[in-house]
Amino acid sequence: MSSAGTTHLNQSGPTEFIFRMLSSSPKIQGLLFCSFLFLYVMILCGNTAIIWAVYTHISLHTPMYFFLSSLSFLEICYTTTLVPLMLSNISGARKPISLTGCATQMFFFATLGSTDCFLLAVMAYDRYVAICHPLQYPLIMSPQLCTQMVAGSLGLALFLSLPLTSLVFTLPFCGHFLEINHFFCDIPPVLHLACADTRVPQAVLYVISILVLTAPFLLICISYVFITITILYIPSSEGRQRAFSTCSSHLTVVLLQYGCGSLVYFRPPSSTPADEDWHLALVYTFVTPLLNPIIYTLRNKDVNNALKKAIKILIQIELTA
């Protein structure tokens, strides 16, 4: 139980949450708003461009690019769940969010974030099959299996997120206005405001974090062990370089996503500094979704060429309009 973030305890009415101000200086608030808005627009544009390129070019209708476009769509939904409300609170007076609104944001954040982690594991399996079993790749990674794997990632995330969110919001919250030491309704800072024993929700959160973060990460590590062994046996240096280049993009995103998530959800609550969690959250809210299109575009000639063709088509449409 904590009263540090509680204000107006004597007020009656339903419980509402307000988010912590990132800065009290109007100049810094303006700078933060412009910076985060710019990053958000870049995330939307970059990920939308990848989806458009994969959808419009038949040469990219392969399992790898299907998963990449699914990841891009997921990143758009994921950031849209958090960023608009964050920008709204930075731009003016802090607006309260109802208990239901906070639960809804938490549910979508947990679902989309978990799906992201599962999908990264699916992408590692796709690379494993492509590199270690190239002749069987078209048979194993059929369109039906690819669709089932994406749907399964989302279904498993829903299965884990719904009971966790329900468990958190069955706890009592004492007071009318409660300040969340974060910029969105993340699970640890909301649990910190409950005026009841939170050991059971904390234990459930820990178990689900293992299922969402540790299990997929171990599968990714095992996949890359076999991938590395196979690549080392490739006779040509050019072939080895091409294979490592394909995998390094995925590994960069994996390390950021799982590293920051583990630091937030695997530490005991008592050892968590007040500001560290939301600093880490900025990484997987802005940096990772922005890096996905940049990394995959810069390192992938097929996506690069498809994007250039798509831009030329758009320019031609504008000129003829």
UniProtKB/TrEMBL annotation:
UniProt-listed Pfam families: 7tm_4
Residue ranges occupied by any G-protein coupled receptors family 1 profile domain in the UniProt entry: 46-296
Annotated keywords: Cell membrane, G-protein coupled receptor, Membrane, Olfaction, Receptor, Sensory transduction, Transducer, Transmembrane, Transmembrane helix
Topology in the lipid bilayer: Multi-pass membrane protein
Entry's Gene Ontology molecular function annotations: G protein-coupled receptor activity; olfactory receptor activity
Membrane-spanning intervals of the chain: 30-53, 65-87, 107-125, 145-169, 203-234, 246-266, 278-298
Protein name: Olfactory receptor
Source organism of the structure: Vombatus ursinus
